[in-house]
Amino acid sequence: MHRRSLVTFTLGAALAVAPVASAEQLGKLGGALKRANQLRDIQMNDAEEAQLGAEVSQRIRARYGVVQNQAVHRYVTLVGTALAQVSSRPGIAWKFIVLDTDAVNAFAAPGGFVHITKGALANLKTESELAGVLGHEIIHVSEKHTIRAIQKGKAVQMGADETVAGNSALLGKLADKAYEIVDSGFGRGDELESDEKGIVLANTVGYAPTGMNGFLNMLMERNKATAATSKNGLFASHPETKERVDKMTKQIASAKLSSTATVGERYTSTISFKPVPVTEVATVESGSAGAAGGSAKPAEEPKKKGIGGLAASLRPGGGEKKSAQVTGSGAARGAGAESAAKGGSNPALVAVSVNAADIAAFKKAGGLK
Ligand SMILES: [Zn+2]
User: Does a structural domain hold residue 72?
Assistant: First the structure.
């Protein structure tokens, strides 16, 4: 889910405020860049990756705002943490963040920052579907897809003269590029890897491995409504989503992924967001927020984002300007209206702390493994 997003989280103090970059970390990052000269040569340790991810998450949260609801964040964090614990990187500081927009989307940023929108939660029907989406995003992080994309040259090269600009500037510039990658979707190979490994995570925890397919099917259905319009028609008729569903269906059979928990009741009793049809999602472009849900609220002006360098990638259709390397196959990415959706105004993280006992109790109550 990554808007096309997927469609791309020490747990310990999970949603606590992101660590502030130490001068030492920044120094290491800057040093690596300086030595490399070109981003394709960049190497990052976990601390540096976390710092980059924090910057990217900040941009995503500034764009969409954060749902200021502790119970919702705790729930998503419990599901996400259970999955992350069986990933290849259980020890990094996973954070699960619910974005305040009616668009259906999810974004994975480096270092363990997994974002899912209120609109996505509203359209999911079971916890196993949520696990499917989160599992997919977790793999984007655990397999370092953003870092890999940067190394492949999807970011602009930084010349030697730019590396002297200062470490903070370097980090910001790198975060801008990482944000663009996260926002526009990963390559086909990365999406397929996230699909394949994500459903294994879900199955390992005990969730029915069909959750991700449920989500993708929902997206295809959701976007049928807009098939006649230029903006969403491309996505609606896109064969890639169907192909992904077919691949996962075959994998579930051949690999005998046989877990069965869907945990629907706990999901619907915890998540009460109402879905907004894609044709009614308020967009930054139109500024007519009143269309959403038939609300009588006065239309709001599109917000200025105030985060330099990102405006281009946030414009409607921005995600379509992909290079051949970045053929987004993420689920939600294709829908123009969703990529241009308006967000809330509060980017503050909602602090959640879950420990091992909490997760064990959560899994037991849900009939998970
Ligand atoms: Zn994805």
Answer: yes
Kindly report the pTM of this predicted structure: 0.77
Q: For position 151, what pLDDT does the model report?
A: 79
The answer to whether 252 and 199 are in contact (CB under 8 A) is yes
CA 193 / ligand 1 centre spacing (Å): 9
Residues in the chain: 369
| Cα of 183 from ligand 1 centre, angstroms | 10
Q: Give me ligand 1 centre to Cα 345, in Å.
A: 25
Residues with Cβ within 5 Å of ion ligand 1? 2, 6, 8, 191, 194, 330
**If DSSP codes are grouped into helix, strand and coil, which group holds residue 166?**
coil
Which domain does 140 fall in, by range?
11-365
Which pLDDT score, from 0 to 100, does residue 293 have? 36
Q: What is the count of structural domains for the chain?
A: 1
Is residue 101 assigned to a domain? yes
Spans in the chain with pLDDT lower than 50: 1-21, 23, 154-156, 159-166, 228-237, 286-334
CA distance 254 to 297: 51
| Residue 3, in any domain of the structure | no
For residues 187 and 143, the answer to whether their CB atoms sit within 8 Å is no
